[in-house]
Amino acid sequence: MEIVDYEEQDERLKAWAIEAQTHPRGSQERQRAITQLVQEIFNSRRLSRPCRGQFTESYDEIYGVAVQKLMFHVCQRIESYKPESAPVMRWVNFLLEREFFPKAVAEVMGNKKVQPEVFFYEDTQTPLPPESSPCLSELVRQVIEEDAEGIFTAKCIRGHSQANFRAIFKRRIMERQSWEQISTELGIKVSTLSDFYQRSLRQLASEIKRNIQS
C-alpha cells in the first residue's frame, strides 16, 4: 500500500498556488501553475464527498457540478486563497462543502431536469493539458467558442438554427444567463433547451476531448 506524505503534498499544492498568484492573469506562467495545482488537487484523492449517502439517485450529478464549479473558482480566483490561513486542500474542501455542493444541490434538485453547467472534470481530464496550457475549464470554453470545425454550431434544436449548442453554451456558461433568460431570447421552452443542452453535452464530449488533446 502506497504511503502518502501529506505534509509534502500540502507544500507542493501551496507552492503552485502561490506561484499562480505571483503571475498576471493570462500569462503562460500563471496558466501553467494553475494547471499543475488542479492536477495535484485531483491526484491527491483528498477532495471531500459531502453528504455521501444522500441524494442517492442524483449524487454523482450533483457532485460533478459542484466539483466543476469549484475548479472554475480555483482557476479564476486563486488570489482568494490565503496561504497563511490554511493548506490548499482544507481551503478547497471548505469551499466544496459550504458553497459549491449546496449550490449544486439547489441547481440539480431544484429542477427535475438535471442541468450540468459544464463538463464534469472527470469526463475530460485524460490526458491533462500540457503544463503551458490554460486550465481545463478554460480549454473547454475555448474549444466550443472557436468551434473550428463548426461542430458545435451545427448541433441545434430542430427548426431553430439559432438555438445551437455553441450559442446556448455561450449564454449559459460564459454570460451566465438563466434558463429563463435564454428561453425568452430564443423563444423556446426551458425544458426543451435544458433537455437539448444536457443531451448534447453527452454526445459532444468525445469531440471536445479530441479538440483539447489535438
Features:
214 residues; globular; two-stranded antiparallel ribbon; single chain; 2 strands
What does it look like?
The protein is mainly alpha-helical. The protein contains 10 helices and 2 strands; from the N terminus they run H-H-H-H-H-H-H-E-E-H-H-H. The protein has helices at residues 6-22, 28-43, 59-76, 88-109, 121-124, 136-146, 151-154, 165-174, 179-186, 190-213, and strands at 156-157, 160-164. Strands 1-2 form a two-stranded antiparallel ribbon. Strand 1 and strand 2 form a beta hairpin. The longest helix has 24 residues, at 190-213. It is globular. The two termini are 36 Å apart. The relative contact order is 0.11. Residues 112-135 have low confidence and may be disordered.
Ends: how far apart? 36 Å
Beta-strand portion reads under 5%
Work out the helix count: 10
Average pLDDT value? Answer: 81
Layout of helices and strands:
Elements: H1 6-22, H2 28-43, H3 59-76, H4 88-109, H5 121-124, H6 136-146, H7 151-154, E1 156-157, E2 160-164, H8 165-174, H9 179-186, H10 190-213
Antiparallel strand pairs: 1-2
Helix pairs in contact: 1-2, 3-4, 6-10
Outline of the structure:
The chain has ten helices and two strands. The chain is mostly helical.
